[in-house]
Amino acid sequence: MTADQPHGAQSPSSHGVLVLAGTPIGDLADAPPRLAAELERADVIAAEDTRRLRRLTQGLGVHTTGRVLSYFEGNESARTPELVEALESGRRVLLVTDAGMPSVSDPGYRLVAAAVEKDIKVTAVPGPSAVLTALALSGLPVDRFCFEGFLPRKAGERLGRLREVEGERRTLVYFEAPHRLDDTLAAMAEVFGADRRAAVCRELTKTYEEVKRGGLGALAEWAAEGVRGEITIVVEGAPAAGPADLDDEELVRRVRVREEAGERRKEAIAAVAAEAGLPKREVFDAVVAAKNAAQKMP
Length: 298
Known about the structure:
This protein has eleven helices and ten strands. It is of the alpha/beta class.
């Protein structure tokens, strides 16, 4: 190895490797066994918070020799080309976030996409996930689910996003800040119904871990008293709707919501028909009738 060739680097003519490493979401003992080895081996460590990285390495008894760079939401776009350049020169780049897997509501997606575009190998050290942990603890169906991340902060946008999935049959998972939890649960109760079952998972794997289960209305009242810590919300999917449950006006409204969210009309009609247990033709006829009625209005 030459003096200027970093430890663990490949030949300068070959690409390096991007390693996405999961980190504990609470209990340090949950760190993946490979994490310590990758931290020691990396030529470059891109960390969401370098201070948290320091605490992590100290807790694991790890000595790092690679260059440490901050990589967070504010500089993700600007720093990605620099990391890609390191990968192209043969470096082994390790990406870690504050907790859980990189790119899951955390920095990482841009770097992965850029690496894939350059045909650079991307691998992962699987680790703890707040999404999967909350699902397992919720007591709600877990055979099918979708992750919605953080909802918009503005009330109107938040309601709009929730209305996009009000008919979603799969279990829904959200992240939320503690100071917005009561407003978010109240909005969910408004859109999904106060009796829709949910679980609020707080401080998972930490000392004060708590899972509060109940209807959305009751959970909103509970949260109004103030809740601290990192929050994951799991919400039961919508019940299956029978043909008699939705009138034409509601069918048209659901199609419109999906169109406004970016779906083509044909796809929106098919999705609403599946949700309602109706033939696609029946939903199509309702949409056409509504369109004709609107055109006749003065």
